[in-house]
Amino acid sequence: MSTPPAPLDERLRVAIELARAAGRQLSSRFESVLTIETKSSDADLVTEADREAEAVILDGLRRAFPDDAILSEESGEVVAAAGPRWTIDPLDGTTNFAHRFPHFSVSIGLFDDEVGLLGVVHDPCRDETFFARQGAGAFLQAGAAPPRRLEVTQTKVLGKSLLATGFGYDRPRGANVEEFSRLVRRTRGIRRAGSAALDLAYVAAGRVDGFWELGLQPWDWAAGVVLVREAGGVVTAMDGAPWALRGPSVCACGPALHGPLRAALVEG
Ligand code: IPD
Ligand code: CA
Ligand code: CA
Question: What is d(CA 85, CA 116) in angstroms, rounded to the nearest whole number?
């Protein structure tokens, strides 16, 4: 007799626990001398810390939910199965980590095809855990404080907005520079902090008004997209087409800013 699928709340609890455990593993390695290898380009890095954090999450998920499908950045399709799939970035912000720039995260999403069910993004440097469940809202637990509900901003005009973006590795160097240069003149500022998962979590938390990037992978944005949507935000591709896990780009922001941001992004 097969076991009935675990309820989403149980999966969320385990995902939060594992994101924090992976975060502790990363923190313990932050001052270590690491072996840095390159992947798709000289700027696309992986270290043993990425793999160790991934092992913490994969072991925990396989123990708790042995039948669940899992896709994880460094190991690929770890478990192929029907039904909802865990999508994991064990260290989002490897370049920061390798340079000891203290801004990186652990990202765990659960998607049923293109439907985002759960999202957890944990920042070990600040001990902040952002989490969301489809239909139940997005929350931030900072340290030992009780979780508080998150909402995107209601900013309407680009001139009053603070945005975030990133520059992917699998695009020619210089991709997104035109968009960046156009937007930096029309906004209060643009942050390139180096972790797409945290960029999206910051949109959900109202710390930035919007985020865009090209060429991310499913593990970079799965969890963050659930956070933004559950915090009342709008998520599409940069041209306004529906966002997809393997789609070309993302434009995520508060509802009032989506029109102006999207228009400015595609203008060129
Ligand atoms: C990267 C980060 C970065 C983004 C890159 C991603 P990684 O992920 O999210 O902010 O600009 O496109 O690939 O390689 O550190 O997991
Ligand atoms: Ca990533
Ligand atoms: Ca990564």
Answer: 10
Contacts of 116 (CB under 8 A, 6+ apart): 109, 110, 134, 222, 225, 226, 229
Find, among 174, 129, 169, the residue nearest to 46 by Cα.
Answer: 169
Indicate the pTM of the whole model: 0.95
**What does the alpha-carbon distance between residue 4 and residue 184 come to, in Å, rounded to a whole number?**
51
CA of 150 to the centre of ligand 1 (A): 24
Q: Work out which ligand 1 atom sits closest to the CA atom of 92.
A: 16
Comparing CA positions, the residue from 159, 152, 167 lying closest to residue 201 is 152
Q: Which ligand is nearest to the CA of 201?
A: 1
Nearest ligand atom owner, CA of 195: 1
Name the strand (E) or helix (H) holding 202. helix 196-204
Nearest to 49 by CA among 68, 74, 66: 74
Across the beta sheet with 76-79, the strand order is 76-79, 69-72, 85-92, 105-112, 115-123, 128-133, 137-142, 148-149
- Ligand 1 proximal residues by C-beta, below 6 Å: 89, 92-95, 166-169, 194-196, 213, 216, 220
Half-sphere exposure of 167 (CA within 13 A, CB side): 16
Angle, helices 218-230 vs 196-204, to 10°: value is 0
- Which of 102, 90, 98, 87 has its CA nearest to residue 18? 90
Lookup: tokens for 173 = 């160097």
Question: What's the pLDDT tens digit per position in 146-205?
Answer: 999 999 999 999 999 999 999 987 666 668 999 999 999 999 999 999 999 999 999 999
- Nearest ligand 1 atom to the CA of 45 is 14
**Phi, psi (5° rounding) for residue 204?**
-60, -35
